[in-house]
């Protein structure tokens, strides 16, 4: 690189900063400086009691509903004895005219009647109080928000549900094997071992019956119970998907059920005879081990369920039976004869074996004396029962009701379930249930399903101050809600059944947790070193200069429940600033975002959003309301909007609050003062043609946006990446993106900036607002081209300029704007596009660090990069390929971004390990700081028996707030056809690339519709006409703009490779040669290393040694090895935008992290770097050259078979997951929506 390059690169610092023209951020800060603030000091003890009281009132409301329904049922039974109540209203025969769709239930329902579903065997005179319940249930629904289904599940087999709706209409409905019913009538904890006989005497038909029966047992219990499933033939086998299953029973969590269901479904018939005694010996061992390590309640029921044909060998039948009963007698004696045995005889197509049935009955009754086994225990055994199963058996009724053999302790108390997926509607619910009795006769169970989003709304949207947050756990430490979890309203998968200690993973919290679980009320303060902090703690610091900070935990057991609420204050000793007595700006007009309700004539379309350019609009997200769930679940009306507007504009403070949090009005009024700035900038800004929208958001969820736009009511600005990144980088202009804008503007990049209570207090904890601007993706590359003429020299082939943000994601790069050389622009990382640079910068100490975090929402360990934004000077080649390629990287002052230039003078080879099949890391068992790999994820390994993470993952902090999907409020098609576009950028009148490039809604069309041929005369057109610069290319929006054509999509995959088929074949031959040389050198190196190091054997083990930038001591004389395999340009990595379903992610589980046959390494041809570096340029100040290891590590994961894969699959940011929900009335895209500007 010549001196011109160096000068241009250095001057880019100031020029790029200047071009951002972000005076709006600083003028907004000046406005907020002028406001008056009050100081508030935390009082966690008082606040936790107030919030706990509010939550208790909610739970009590549903307890009252359940108790009221119970009284009606029990009173109805008294009446039934004299005047039978037997009328049935079948749910599946209700006329459609009686029902209408209700969003709360996500089903067609009738809110005036209840209906019934029956189990297989119901007496025609069975008690059914359903018609007596109708009026009571309807009143309950009207007066109690958040209620979903109310039901009475009768012991005689009738399931009455309100409101009436059609469900489970194929066959009968056995509701008495549902976990909610089982836990209500037998609330004591159950320890269950299921043994499945799959010996040679069992036919495939019998084994299928056993599989089905085991699955029904598994699905009838809940987290309070513990389970193990064994198979027995010649040996005993347990589920191998978790090692703990071999030694202990596991709580019946959803994950344990999933793993054990997989195990059950894969059982095959064995060729060996069944060793019954071995199965029982292992079962008792598991029960005893579990009892020894857990503080087992005295009323725990222990059960062994044996699914077997009962066949023993002909030669030693009596001996086998005696041995089996002997094991049962001896083992049960060690457990005080408290274990019950239930046997289910698998009948072979109607053939009854009397000897086999007798043996299974003797096992159930533990009749050991019959076989001459002496009884040495003084305690009586708990006798079980034997039942015959065949193909005609209704397993749900017979096996699913196994619990009726257990003692009924007549525990008549209400119980709360943990969250689970609603099987009759959608979303997640908790159930409050209670058994009904008439004397000692069990009538059934009454239950109320409550929307989880409603129950947890006070915890989910808690915002007392910027310094605090809250979580809710049960009395065993299981986490129901925490700030890093997805909001229940948008939850699609139950979070991992996880103890709170894994979320609050900081030194000293273990002692706090112990106090929280043992004391009903209390508080505790601990000091946390900054280097052990959590991200949501750092974002709340008011004084980040200290080496340690205090965290205050205040908790309270919610009365009448098993749940514990905790409020946490970060740096409680430092006051928090809050806005005081704001007034609306005199010239400001408050326009609520529901433009569709207001019907004003000045509306237009901002791409696909209903909008107006006359004024910004204000959106109040769910967190702005006192009852967030009510806001989300109920439709807004014009009258409600008028009430909001009047209250928020009222400087006299005489208008009644329409249900908003007390601090919301001040935040709305404060943001109103920004409006004049926005409108004046609209008139003079030179960037209008590149800005999609401008917006400002406050901690309580107030969003003011321009152009004023209709937003989806579930949108929460506080949980968007642009907001969180800004708060994590206070005082810096923060880049986020690119993302596909849900509003229809294509790919956008967001820059955002925190607004503080004072310019002098720029810590995250003093943030009072975050302001953002969405730019078109190409604008930032246009900035580079305009500032650095060197970037234009060869159209980004050998000389490439780029901008990346502090996690390594590219904001500008030639491949992001090249129509023939890129995949979707989202989440493209420096490791994807510039692996040589990525490899080299990993060797710069203190500049970049690979991090890990545990994501409990999607059950993964995320690996991601964090670049040091405080570094001074430039970075340039330190190790790799310096004779062929040279780069210079420099931070853009005042931002979280870096500008870089790469100059390739010859081909080089560099690798960054990436998977092309999914985001799974190629080696989940090791991570080295100086080895290049793309951001990726590994399965989160949990000991299912204890709920604890593995030792390695227990060190990781919990990830930030989980990224949520976005949806666009769809407007009437008639409006879409008639309304004009708000902004006209006159694309057709732009005749040069520079005039068209990056302009809003414009594309410079350069490639013909075949995706290959360059146009003779490129031209400027609307984005929808040639998305990405290809004529006729359909946009990635799944709506009227079209779905990405399969042919074009495959073409885009192919064209991502910079070499053609012939060159690709040649490159393949070269790679075979290169890899052979690498393998040879690696083998020689290994031998030499083993010869020189007595610790070679230890080096071969799995390790994560360099997590803190530590380096191994290795040879210094094998410099050549690393150059071949560590560096590269990009060969083929097309990134597709897809949803990652839970099923797809679960393919990771149980898989070795060392598999890499499906992966690849980003790579390009380049010479071996044995030659000494020819770089004589001095490195910038503060960058330590040091002594850097050049060897290939012995644990280097396989990176060879990766080159053979040609599949291209999605890529996502480590913290960001974008499920795509396609509903009839909503367009959803994995994007960042915020929503901008008027005419150019």
From TrEMBL:
Q: Does the keyword Transport apply?
A: yes
Q: Which positions, given as ranges, span the membrane? A: 1059-1080
Q: Which PANTHER family match?
A: VOLTAGE-DEPENDENT CALCIUM CHANNEL SUBUNIT ALPHA-2/DELTA-RELATED, VWFA AND CACHE DOMAIN-CONTAINING PROTEIN 1
Annotated region (Disordered) at 1141-1187
> Could you tell me what this protein does?
May regulate voltage-dependent calcium channels.
Please state what the protein is called.
Answer: VWFA and cache domain-containing protein 1
The top of its lineage is: Eukaryota, Metazoa, Chordata, Craniata, Vertebrata
Report whether Translocase shows up as a keyword of the record.
Answer: no
Q: Cite the record's Polar residues compositional bias ranges.
A: 1159-1178
Family the entry assigns:
Belongs to the calcium channel subunit alpha-2/delta family.
Q: Where in the cell is it found?
A: Membrane
Q: How does it sit in the membrane?
A: Single-pass type I membrane protein
List the Gene3D superfamilies. PAS domain, von Willebrand factor, type A domain
* Residue ranges annotated for the VWFA domain, each copy included: 191-392
Q: From the UniProt record, which GO molecular function terms apply?
A: voltage-gated calcium channel activity
- Identify the species of origin: Sinocyclocheilus anshuiensis
